[in-house]
């Protein structure tokens, strides 16, 4: 039987996984609808990808929670999808520019979209959905495999180096995106990407903490905790940029 710490750690881990399954979807759809990935900084996505790969291999070497490994693998796949969109739409635009009658702006003007529900209500509903799916996934996994997960018994320096490298890359990745937002006013950037990234990182950090606040467990997971917890503050800043520029655009009468 799982004790309460293992249970909470597993539940929060699965909620985090459920959250990250949908977190990339709004930005991927945004890129598709605009037929452009120029709202994202390439350096941001590349640093994110390298950080996720370090996260993945570090988690495997360190024998961390299965949810940590699953998340890192999924992150890497989604990063590749975002990069593929950016370069595909650039290639597509290059072809269009060779046809004068088909020239279009790099980022198409976004028309005001109908909002049947307030933004906060939609996000709240999405969070409830994520929590329900995460709890269901935890319940199914606990039924199929009742073996408890325990903190790593040995701290490996290779895993620690990779974990801290990923943490630094996650933090550094936000800088080019924040800089790009100053120029583009966050045009083509989905706020949901960062909103759910915040929720995912918070639940991810809590899942590690719930496993035990012992010195060994905290040291073994220090890079992953730092990478998740510290990026929350930068993601809050990015969200602030998004809503600030949208407020400015509305006051100036620009259609988004």
UniProtKB/TrEMBL annotation:
Biological-process GO terms, alphabetical: vacuolar transmembrane transport
UniProt topology in membrane: Multi-pass membrane protein
Record's subcellular location: Membrane
Gene3D superfamilies attached to this UniProt entry: 1.20.1280.290
Entry annotated with the keyword Nucleotide-binding: no
GO cellular component, one term: lytic vacuole membrane
Keywords of this entry: Membrane, Transmembrane, Transmembrane helix
Top-rank lineage group of the source organism: Eukaryota
Keyword Transmembrane: yes
The family this protein is said to belong to: Belongs to the laat-1 family.
Name of the protein in question: PQ-loop-domain-containing protein
Organism: Lyophyllum shimeji (Hon-shimeji)
Taxonomic lineage of the native organism: Eukaryota, Fungi, Dikarya, Basidiomycota, Agaricomycotina
Name of encoding gene: RTC2
